Amino acid sequence: MKRILACLLVLLGFAQAASASGDTLPLDRFQKERVTDIAALQNGAKLFVNYCLNCHAAAFMRFNRLRDIGLADEQIKKNLLFTSEKVGDLMTVSLDPKQAKDWFGAVPPDLSVIARSRASGGGSGADYLYTYLRGFYKDDTRPTGWNNTVFPAVGMPHVLWELEGEKRAVFAEEKDAHDPSKTTHVFKGFETIKPGKMTKAEYDQAMGDLVAYMVWMAEPVQNQRVRLGVWVLIALAIFTLIAWRLNAAYWKDIK
User: Fold this and answer.
1) Region 6-23: what's the mean pLDDT?
2) pLDDT band for position 115 (cuts 50, 70, 90)
């Protein structure tokens, strides 16, 4: 009994930690239809390899799987491979875990299934990633010079800042709705400090493509599975109809 209670307490602790890290602010909704958009997936793959794969691995994904989103081996070699990598290699990184921990405070997580693991009561994993990637702001109190509204005190720097530009977060002190004697730090929005290479709309579009790729990467066969599922349901419906009529014909003479 004590072991069961201990396990329950551990699970409760994990749930509270996930809630604290992912549900601090309402999550923006990711457009699910992007996962079936080949152009969006290809652009997302390009962004992922150029900006994420330097520190984060995707060790359960091979480069040649990108054929499924319309990329030929030659395109993969020319645009997405570096140094001596081969098309059949896994998406790993050469970053030393010890050095990564010294630099960032923690080893950057593998992103193979990050879009699924970040789901919570506040929204899907895609919603979390879409909000997180657009939630970086300048903060000189942090070692990297950046902070994040979704993941406060994050160790990751804003690697996409050249595309988005620099912005600061605007906070206000407001009275706590449950205890008027206390005040809370409330996020009000962003103010642009320095524009980037992309407009806000272009950056949001790019982050949508990047998240779409990560959602696809977490389960590359999901689109085929959905299409196959429709045909399975149709087949089951036809079989049910046939079984119902056969049953009626069998019991007709017996009754």
Assistant:
1) 41
2) very high
Residue 1 domain-assigned (yes or no): no
Q: Are residues 159 and 204 in the same domain?
A: yes
- 98 and 212, same domain (yes or no): yes
Residue 96, classed as helix, strand or coil, is coil
pTM over 0.85: no
Q: Which two tokens stand for residue 254?
A: 């017996």
Per DSSP, the three-state class of 2 is helix
Same domain, 149 and 196: yes
Flag whether pLDDT at 18 surpasses 80. Answer: no
Handedness of CA 196, 199, 204, 208 (dihedral sign): negative
Q: Does 182 share its domain with 242?
A: no
Name the H helices within the chain. 2-22, 38-47, 73-80, 97-104, 114-117, 125-133, 161-164, 200-218, 222-254
Residue 47 has pLDDT above 70, yes or no: yes
Kindly report, residue by residue over 208-236, the tens digit of the pLDDT. 999 999 999 999 988 788 888 899 999 99
Spatial contact of 131 and 113, defined as CB atoms under 8 Å apart: no
Q: Are 249 and 158 part of one and the same domain?
A: no
Say if 155 falls within a structural domain. yes
pLDDT at 58: 95
Alpha-carbon gap, residue 207 to 198, rounded angstroms: 11
Mean pLDDT of 158-169: 96
Shared domain for 148 and 229, answered yes or no, is no
Q: Are residues 91 and 42 in the same domain?
A: yes
Three-point CA angle 8, 13, 14, nearest 5°: 100
Q: Residue 250: which domain range?
A: 224-255
Nearest C-alpha neighbor of 105 from the set 64, 142, 67? 142
